[in-house]
Write a structure and sequence with these properties.
The chain is of the alpha+beta class. It folds into two domains: about 210 residues; about 150 residues, Aminopeptidase, CATH 3.40.630.30. It is built from twelve helices and twelve strands. A twelve-stranded mixed beta sheet has the order 1-2-3-4-5-12-6-11-10-9-8-7, sandwiched between helices. Strand 10, helix 10 and strand 11 form a beta-alpha-beta unit. The longest helix is centred in the last third of the chain and has 25 residues.
């Protein structure tokens, strides 16, 4: 029987229904105010993945907005990492690129396998069905770029190869850190053993998922905001109290919190398992606490221990590369698979520029510096 790809506005899979249910009722900004998008769902060969559909939304988080990813967020990073002269030059260059990207409607995009989190494991589906999927998606959205998120050689090598064969651009997006469940590098890591001892030192209470209550959701959300929005970038998803509560109540994520003896929460981490891979999309702590307290070190040990307990690999996302390398993480390049062959040349051109800049500048830089 011929393979058929079905596109729908509502999911069939139970996990997808639980994940996206409230967002289909109230809109995706209930998850985060900077995640304005329209969900859709792709079913093929017995598997289902979520899609997000966008048109402009220039102020969206980078999870749904290529413009934010490559222009706004990049400008912020350059300003933070360089002096005023370099920042001004970079800003001028990005301003010109940004004007071009807007004219070329770079945010008119379908993001495939977008769970509204930064790291999105792929199901193991037959990549031979990709031509049918591309035909179905371009028929429904003939004016949109198709972007397949969170691709890497550990989880989705057949899909990467199939996308390349189909004429998609494989755009390096970031370097993630991978931990096998039985990793000898983690076992041998002196730094990880120190972190594990610190986690269990006893000066902070480890609060498991079952002991977290609805009254705790606001403070846990604020801890996430302190790290991901305050210390890192406002272009990260601005997750709401309602979303943190939804993930906890529905057991979509497993939360672990750190609390002082007096009852004040000082850190939080949440693990999500998808398709046999663990991720850690929610992390937060009081960033003004003394470095010696080691809040991030303790929280970063939690998903590694959880993955080992479950016997599954961990994708610990990008960032703080040297820290993760010293604790047994394996660097793996993550890609966007960008399919634009159905679009006019003017719409394809910005993506080709993104591909060239990422392949020639970004990927060598992150590999060299272990970012």
């Amino acid at each position: 029987m011929a393979t058929e790809a079905t596109l729908s506005d509502t999911p069939r899979d139970d996990f997808l229904c639980r994940w996206f249910g409230p967002l289909l009722e109230t809109g995706t900004t209930a998850c985060a105010p900077n995640l304005a998008t329209t969900p859709a769902f792709l079913q093929v060969d017995g598997i289902e993945v979520p899609l997000t559909v966008n048109e402009k939304e220039w102020d969206n988080s980078w999870l749904c907005s290529p413009y934010t990813h490559y222009i706004t967020y990049a400008h912020e990073e350059i300003t933070r990492a360089t002096g005023p002269v370099t920042a001004a030059l970079g800003g001028a260059l990005l301003g010109g690129l940004g004007a071009w990207f807007r004219r070329a409607e770079i945010n008119r995009v379908i993001m495939a396998n977008n769970w509204l989190h930064s790291t999105n494991p792929w199901p193991r589906w037959d990549a031979a069905t990709l031509p049918v999927v591309l035909d179905a998606m371009t028929a429904r959205w003939p004016d949109h770029a198709l972007v397949f998120r969170s691709l890497n050689a550990k989880e989705s090598a057949p899909l990467l190869a199939a996308l390349g064969k189909a004429g998609a651009m494989l755009v390096p997006s970031r370097q993630i850190w991978w931990y096998e469940a039985d990793s000898e590098a983690v076992t041998r890591s002196h730094e990880f053993r120190k972190d594990e001892r610190l986690l269990h030192r006893g000066d902070l209470e480890i609060v498991p998922h079952e002991e977290i209550t609805e009254a705790d959701y606001p403070i846990l959300t604020k801890l996430y905001e302190q790290l991901y929005l305050g210390k890192y970038s406002r272009h990260n998803p601005q997750y709401s109290v309602a979303w943190i509560g939804h993930l906890h109540r529905e057991n979509l994520a497993r939360f672990t919190a750190l609390r002082e003896p007096g009852g004040r929460f000082v850190g939080v981490e949440a693990c999500v398992e998808m398709h046999g891979v663990l991720t850690s999309p929610i992390v937060g702590y009081e960033v003004d606490r003394p470095r010696e307290l080691g809040l991030y070190r303790r929280l970063a040990a939690v998903p590694v221990l959880e993955a080992r307990k479950r016997g599954i690999p961990l994708n610990l996302s990008a960032g703080v590369g040297q820290f993760k390398a010293l604790r047994g993480g394996e660097p793996v390049m993550e890609y966007l698979g960008v399919y634009v062959r159905h679009l006019p040349r003017s719409r394809r051109a910005p993506w080709r520029a993104v591909h060239e800049l990422s392949a020639r500048l970004l990927a060598p830089h992150v590999r060299k510096h272990g970012l």
